[in-house]
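Late entry, written up from scratch paper. The run itself happened at the end of the previous shift, but nothing got recorded in the book at the time, so transcribing now.
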Amino acid sequence: MQLTFPREVRLRSKYPSGVLIALFLSMPIFASSPDVEELRISKARFANANMVTRYQRFAEELSASLPAANTKAMRSALVARIARALWQRAVTDSTTALADDRALYWGRLALRVSLRENLQRESLESPEYNSELASLLSLLEQHSRGLRDIHFPENGTLKILITGFDPFRLDQNVSQSNPSGLAALMLDGKTLNHGAVPARIEAATMPVRFEDFDLGIIEDFLTPHFRANHLALMVTISMGRSGFDLERFPGLRRSAIAGDNRNVVTGADSKNPLIPHLGTTLLDGPEFVEFSLPTHSMLRAIGAWPVVDNRQVRTLERGAFAAKALRELADQTSVSGSGGGYLSNEISYRSILLHQRLLADFPIGHIHTPSVDGYDEAVERRIVAQILGLLVRAIEASPNPRQSEH
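Output as recorded:
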């Protein structure tokens, strides 16, 4: 069962009339039983108990405290507080203890299970129960992902916003990590020096779920920042190939046959690429967009892996090729962008499209990290260090980086 909780997001239309498009975004809800992600917990605990139970105390606190929360407001405040504490604990641990993104992922799922089991009602299928559970799960997701924990100083500091992803491919390896999620944890709240002006990184992690993207999680999160136009740099990050790829030309359509973390498949493939949704309609945009990262500087970042300005795309008309300029893609049908045909490409496309429609003018783009098999702390620390170097290069290359004025 799915219930919706509208949030209106207004985007500048691409049409000359300047008509505003109102989009009502929603959060998914599976009311009475665990979903596919949650059902993997027992398998993950068998494979690596320390990874799964590291943050079990947050789920235990929720179970112990929820019965005494007698009103909806109290329950909402409780869930938000514990989920936020989980995120902040994972951020702290990533720099002071174990650099590992997986514990946060499994800790969040344990919180979801605890919430379902302890939110008691006379009828678990009643509209009232489902409505409140949906609202609380939404709060849990937002706060435990850092989506509600973006706090930039108001002292002239440059603002850098980054996103990472949850672990995925978990049916192949339930102990899989994702360096992009680790980068979000390790770099969240980090201050850099840009000459005499400091720069602050704030970060969040995104789910590997098609439904959340269709329902507008990216647009919902980024719209306030893009509308305010107060960032100096925005970078989305995901795990990719053998080195670092700066993905120049994201594509509109999905073509990956792989399922998401709930084993949902879209039916898309390379012969039938599909346009994703935004709310109740298809995402409306050009077949390809182009990032605005300062590649001339970022390609000189020093690290263990090569950095590539990746221009490779695939279209129905021409197949795979390296595009020299966006104009080459004007009459093509996207199969995969430079970042592929999965959610890595899609987060880049959606963020750049929103950036353009809200007339934001700071650099924006996507970085694919080297891939890791399972988890390797030493390798992932080096990956995060090179990501940091790329961000520093990007800020240094900005001719007039925007300082915080809000």
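The chain has a mean pLDDT of 89.
(Scratch paper discarded after transcription.)
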